[in-house]
Amino acid sequence: TTASWDFVGLKRGKRAKRNPSIESDTIIGVIDSGIYPLSDSFSDRGFGPPPKKWKGVCHGGKHFPCNNKVIGARNYTPKIKGIPHSVMDNMGHGSHTASTAAGNAVKDVSFYGLANGTARGGVPAARIAVYKVCDPGIKGCTSDGILSAFDDAIADNVDLITISIGDEKGLRFEEDTIAIGAFHAMVKGILTVNSAGNNGPELSTVTSVAPWIFTVGASDTNRAFVTKAVLGDGKTVVGRSVNTFDLKGTKYPIVYGKSASSNCDSASAGLCSPGCLDRKLVRGKIVLCDSAQNVEEAKYMGAIASIARSSLADAAYVFSFPVSVLSAPAYNDVLSYMNSTKNPIAAVLKSETIFNQKVPVIASYSSRGPNPIIPDILKPDITAPGSEIIAAYSPTVPPSISDTRHVKYSILSGTSMSCPHVAGVAAYVKSFHPRWSPSMIQSAIMTTAWAVNASTLMPEFAYGAGHVNPLAAVHPGLVYEANKSDHIAFLCGLSYTGKNLRLISGESCSCTKAQSKFLPRDLNYPSMTAKVPARKPFKVTFRRTVTNVGTSNTTYKAKVVGSKLDVKVIPNVLSLKSMHDKKSFKVTVSGKGLRAGKLVVSSQLIWSDGFHFVRSPIVVYAAN
Amino acid sequence: AKNDQEKQVYIVYMGALPARVDYMPMSHHTSILREVTGESSIESRLVRNYKRSFNGFAAWLTESERQILTNMENIVSVFPSKTLKLQ
Question: How confident is the model over B48-60, as pLDDT tens digits?
């Protein structure tokens, strides 16, 4: 966060317009691994008492101090004998995400000199309510605890929930804890922001699938950490890691994992698999590992450093000893150098920071659409910085496996990090429009996102509507609203009928005939997506309604760009008289059959009054 | 196949809280648990109640108890509590 907020355009201090009094009244519920309350990011210097609307408590456990910044704490992790039952963060993750969303601005933060700058959240004046559901003692986060956290957070009157947790795959709503909790939050006007998952780049790996959840993918920023390795023949290869260990450029012998084992097959030894490396063969050397997965094994066996390979080396991670993670071509350069000399040597250098102002690129790990549960709802919705983010951490937790260091700020990568960025932006938007519903805030952020032209396969399934653009999101012009009854109709269309619908909605309603025919793609969503049979001509229609939140007496004209599709918008001119005036339109998309290799076609519908540009992706893809 | 008497934590989701002011979620959950387990004391079964913003509870149940609950009129779904991951 010392660079990511500047990167997305939310400058520090007076350079970004703020609404301090409302921002200070905003409460962000963080469902995560707890928080390290003594961090400067969570000091309450200058904060008044909690907002009047606050109905929560501070049940952080013994010696856990809440304050006027961290105003609430509840613990849902099971009591484990001999371990203090506290909301104290034993994983570092909760402190990191909470400070990314709403941490104070803290000057001169760095990770041993790297990523130096002012760490801050999206809404530094907002309050934080902590709901601890994860702990190393339970190896993760229990879903029954998560549901309880939603039960309390909603009743405690938080404004927004950020949860960087997910399952291994998308689930049907009635078994998806986060979808259940988020539905009831939405009903109470609370937006839930959720990480998309880190199972990319494979398709259909997004784990946060409900339309009433704001799902966030991860991209990089204009700053990256690189770690060079200088080979004995003078060649330098550039790898990724956050290496703060300075070997002073000294060159050490290199040994390949494959040839440093006396008891494993060469593949396992090449991967530096646990138990495979022979201490006598690696001690005092740099070990080459075919994967970054087990590099600590080399350290256990006395290696000085490691050079590893990763096909997805597009984010730098912290290790407990000098490591450089190379892409395959660079790794092969090292291998060929090793084969060219009897006594290969190399040096692994300290990491350097490189800046290059460029468009954000989706992180390879970021989970992708299409939506495995609801094909016609595009997920992820939006992308935000998620790679190499420095933010508050818990000094009681080592910053990497078998690491002896203790840090107050650390560098993490994942959709866990991009999620609180969007939560911070949502709170920022809400501070200007406190009465906006969750869907209006989500729409504002999606339709004002930076468009991303990407070389990645099926970019729409990677980026969603694009990259978050906080300043524009405050003035979206038009929004797509979807309230509880819209979502009830959506559920009817998914044949949630009778008992289930009645119970979920809490109303004695059952689906009308019209609602039972409701198509998911007709949910008033800010993006438009349709899955069609392959190789057949298609013609799909989307019905949408926009609400005027820009200026009275304005006229919007429709424009379709990137039209590999034949798109008709009827009507294509909307005249909106007053604020909150609504107008409906229909988008009809037709095209020839989609076939392998061209399974996705997309366009963008942009409504503009010359000042606002309300952009929605239109994505049609073939069931393969 | 799981031994039928083996218990695990299930989430029993009951949807929105009934609007009736006299509705007492926790006693309702207790009576459901007593009915489905046949046990008068359910303390060792109950893990937690959901009672402030929506309706439901988590409890140690066997597979056959889960099936009985799934068919009950005021229950939306019964599914195993899992360990989710930080991302």
Answer: 999 999 999 999 9
